[in-house]
Amino acid sequence: MQKSSAVLFCLSILFVFASCDSGHMFDAYKSVPGAWNKDNVVQFDFTPPDTTNAYNLFVNIRNNNDYKYSNLFLIVDLEFPHGKSLTDTLEYKMAKPNGEFLGAGAGSIKENKLWYKEGFILNESGQYKVKIQHAMRENGKVNGVINLEGITDVGFRIEKPTTLN
Questions:
Q1: Quick check: pTM over 0.70?
Q2: In sequence order, what DSSP letters do the residues of 49-116 get, joined into one string?
Q3: How many domains does the chain have?
Q4: Do the domain assignments include residue 35?
Q5: What is the CATH number of the domain that holds 142?
Q6: pLDDT digit string (tens) for 151-160?
Q7: How many CA within 13 A on the CB side of residue 103?
Q8: Is residue 132 part of a domain?
Q9: 3-class SS shares of the chain: helix, strand, coil, % to 5
């Protein structure tokens, strides 16, 4: 009995240290019920902690086995507090050539932390908005995918850049 208590204690400590993440400044997710409609814009509002330091910005995507593509196209719009806006069309690799999904997770849900902007300074004080929508098309087709299946959650994350010693 004493041995199992020691193992449980060690696992608890490991969990606490693994879940500590002091580098993030903002981290939020929104669920996508059923399928992600092309007109459904996922929005995150945030106020940066300061306007002088650089941050790394990420789009986080959780997908399940219903996702049938090897890549993902997104339109990400970053609106500054005073009206300026940056819009990017981004492509991310979601699967290996053999069809195995990339990302973290042992079960049917994979979590992908996708680079959006590196070393970016949010130089205006006030509230920012990030708007994310998918822009998927099937090969050879003009019209886009209306309802994208297999995406379960869309997230946005801001981190302090890590420094290597």
A1: yes
A2: S-SSSEEEEEEEEEE-TT---SEEEEEEEEE-TTS-EEEEEEEEE-B-TTSPBPSB-SSS-EEEEEEE
A3: 1
A4: yes
A5: 2.60.120
A6: 999 999 999 9
A7: 27
A8: yes
A9: 10, 50, 40
